[in-house]
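Recall the central idea of this unit: under ordinary conditions, the amino acid sequence of a chain determines the structure it adopts. In this exercise we apply that idea directly, starting from the sequence alone.
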Amino acid sequence: MSGEGRVFLGEAQRGSFSTNKDGQRIRVLGGGLVGKLVVAQLHELGHSVTLVDIDSKALQWATEIGVETLPQSALQTSSLDTSQADIWVNLLPGELGDKVRLPLLERGARIIDLAFTLSDPRQYDNLAKQCGATMLFDVGVAPGLSNLWVAKALELLRQNGEAAQSIEIKVGGIPQQSDSNWSYMAPFSPSDVIAEYERPARIRIDGINCQEEALSRRHIVDDEAGELEAFLTDGLRSLLDLDCPNMLEYTLRWPNHIDRFIQLRDSGALSPLRRKETLEELYQHWKFDPSRPEMTLLTVLVRGENSDWRARLYDAGESGWSSMARTTGLVTVAAVEAMVAGTIPLGVHAPEQVWQELLPLAENHLANAGVFLSSG
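Accordingly, the structure predicted from this sequence is:
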């Protein structure tokens, strides 16, 4: 498959898409960089959107574009009234996002979930079915679009009579140019970024699931976007349930970024006594600067016995939206569209479980916005 049948979704192939004409009541939990884009897109598509957030500036922004708002107190278990919304979009940081999952599922909610946590939400699958609830989790770029592409590649290999031999995913959201400091801006919760750097990476080697230290297997990647450094992180998650003997996921950063983090970590700056102060400093160093050009890059390589399948996403932002907001947010909007259409069954599902329903929608949303995609 490598080099054949490759599809480039660019200007000439962008098409229009539509959603259910009857607007849904959608409650978005979290109005960060990604949350704002999701709110704006869903509002533009005619849905009745309510944003829940602790940040008064985010709530003011939402009010100014005509979106209803609620304070973070609406996230208390007693306030999670599922009769008030048709679909819930969970964009809260990891631990906080995890706390709202169970009560929403118990009350039969339909949920699009981006809260990145160590726990596997599929533990609630039977409960969700019993309660008439649906949740699609790990919706974004990687995990998210990467899962959809992997599932498609495995199916194409199967149709070709081949077994998959390896899966390799590489992803990063970074400034377009490096600097003498961290060469990084956190497009989502910095605490989730640090957790990614500290949590052991679950991978598969020669058919055996194992763990390796995060930030290991470092190597240079020569991409059109620049010479970047790749290192292991814990992003495979539900993909480890698929039938493939070798699976690895890497995060991409500019060279020297991880050296700097390792030096900080090894100095004891993240020890319990110094951790809070260090995190506050990192939050300032990694603060997202909307005036600085940035980019998001995702590559997926699935090797078969006789052929390879490759896919690449690249975006540099547009119309005041960051690339990570666009790429993550547009896949999220596609997931909402799939939920509205009723193509996501009861239960808790990873993206690859519904790839045939979700991938065309996700690619259409991304391509329509001018995000570069190639695959084949």
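The longest strand covers residues 166-175.
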